[in-house]
Fold ArfGAP with dual PH domains 1.
Amino acid sequence: MNQLLGKPGNGECADCGAADPEWASYTLGVFVCQSCSGLHRNIAQISKVKSLLLDPWSSSEVEFMDSAGNNAAKAKYEQIVPAFFYQPKHKDCMLLREQWIRAKYERKEFMSVERQEPYSAGYREGFLWKRGRDNGQYLSRKFILSEREGVLKYFNKHDAREPKAIMKINTVNATFQPTKIGTPHGLQITYLKDNSTRNVFVYHEDGREMVDWFNAIRAARFHYLQVAFPVSPLSVLLPMLTRNYAREGYMEKTGPKHTEGFKKRWFTLDDRRLMYFKDPLDAYARGEVFVGSKENGYSLLPELPANTQGYHWQFGITIVTPERNFLFACETEESQNDWMFEFQTVINRPMLPQEYAVEAYFKHKP
Ligand SMILES: [Zn+2]
């Protein structure tokens, strides 16, 4: 079995790409990591897994694994994966990896296009549990995704004619947030309204439904971006479909005059937008800071100015922008280092043409 691991394709988990898989499915003929082997156990009727190290392997099983393997399985089960379809990596949440495994081997969605209808039809309608803005209660809401109209919308009453919110697909993002939302199927959808970020938190009891919604949103974004950027290659378009946040967590902040006491807030760094919230599940950001590039006058200091007062946490960060300095305090040195790293990464990256327009908006914000 050890020799088989050296064959091309078998050195990474067939489902999430993690290095050095130590498990294998002897009915599907794939080598997988320990975490994905646990997900294969959920589809025991078609996949049976064993440890390469701890379990005995018969010679006929070894022969089968030799004749199959990860590359052969990929050629069979991933024949026609749509470009927009999210293929999870090891660090992605359990739900995304589980549904990817079920889609491939159980539902065989990538062996015939008809099975891809739920996310590739360009229209999707259904009910999701949506977190209420004011009371935090989850209520069933009808959602409609329409590629033709270029929108995702939801309705507060089942028979309502007018949607409660219309989210333009060109500003929509979706990211799974099981820990923050507190449910394994929790999806955070964001969109821009008057250039400010709005959050919508949803889930569906059925994990497949939730991931189908996610991929339907990606499909709609993909088709929109193909029209908006007709000459851009897939390698440029695909990372734009949905994005995870660079970093989230608590820091303390003070106001523009730097005289008011620091307050603890939840921060999200989404590309070049640093947003802060009183509660991580707030519908609106209390404020947003644009983080530009060093060529445009943005820089970073691992400290607060010497005369600063009113903070409780000891590990300071100053973001210098052409307009003003933003002061933050982190609870631990590790958190300070992690934030510094992500801010520096953004500042080191030159600005794209479309990002100048966003910066200009922030500069003239009332
Ligand atoms: Zn894996």
